# Entry
Amino acid sequence: MALTIRIQQHGGPEVMQCIETEVGAPASGEVTIKQTAIGLNYIDTYHRSGVYPLSLPSGLGQEAAGVITAMSADIAGFNIGDRVVYAGGPVGAYAELRNVSTARLLKLPDDIDETVAAALLLKGMTAYYLLHMSFLVKPGHRLLVHAAAGGVGSVLVPWAKSLGAFVIGTVGSEAKAEAARKSGCDEVILSRHHNIADEVKRITNGMGVDVVYDSVGKDTLDASLDSLRLRGLMVSFGNASGKPPPVDPAMLMAKGSLFLTRPTLAHYTSTRAELETAANALFEVIRNGVVKPEIGQRYELRDVAKAHADLEARKTSGASLLIP
Ligand SMILES: NC(=O)c1ccc[n+]([C@@H]2O[C@H](COP(=O)([O-])OP(=O)(O)OC[C@H]3O[C@@H](n4cnc5c(N)ncnc54)[C@H](OP(=O)(O)O)[C@@H]3O)[C@@H](O)[C@H]2O)c1
# Structure
């Protein structure tokens, strides 16, 4: 029997039930993983609340690391005892034990810890495509990064600095401002106290930034567009404050012939080669010290309701882990 989180309906953190389930033998193409660390991601709250509806009842969670304890006879390239990690669908990572397909499973290099991998794989591969594919960051580029001290932010900021960018971060508190500066932000804006676009214009001598990475959504859309230089790029990649309203193309013209993209990790890691490129790039920046894993919170798996509540209340900093 294995502790597993299930939801019967969408709603607040209270809808997550902690139950014991029987995990059968792995099906064709699958291995059984004894999970040692589970990554908490903001998308898990969208799945739980119904912002991104699931077919119910359902498990939750997109990311975990652990050790293979069983495998179907047709598996090649993996062995019992291998340390592995995965990020992305299908949901169901909130569990002690899980059968998963090897299609998107990655073997962990010896020097990458399971807790670090579970905390950073999804967020770090996201940072990779945002910095290298959505926009190709080069030395001297000016970036605005919202939630700079958050899970994705705390990977994206130091990685962007290593590419030679000038990084302005927004944060919700003084403590997070300190964390954002430590991870490399050149300038930090306290989003609850300042007009973000005015501050960006002041910092950039009226020019604006080349690219905005906006994961906050509804509350920051206008400020993000107003912070861009002529022909700048708005990367809207999340909705922590709610979905942003639709954007009229004419507004992009009026604000400076701006570009807008709304990417998702799945489309940037849709092939095995893309997945491995992104994961290996992340492992390398962890290995060479560019990205220092910031695991700000650890919760027991059965305390997942508190973990979700803290994340949604902006109480967390860096990445959060659920420990089975
Ligand atoms: N599209 C993709 O491929 C992709 C992949 C991964 C993640 N994401 C998105 O990236 C974002 C970050 O994910 P994460 O897991 O690393 O979470 P996170 O950044 O650790 O947490 C969200 C942060 O957003 C900020 N925030 C601002 N207004 C908020 C509000 N009204 N409610 C809640 N939070 C608010 C808070 O930081 P402050 O208090 O400092 O403002 C909060 O800590 C999420 O929007 C997620 O959906 C997208």
Q: What stands out?
A: The pocket of NAP is lined by residues 41-43, 122-123, 126, 147, 149-153, 171-172, 176, 191, 215-216, 219, 237-241, 263-265, 311-312, 314, 316 (CB under 6 Å). The radius of gyration is 20 Å. The mean pLDDT is 98.
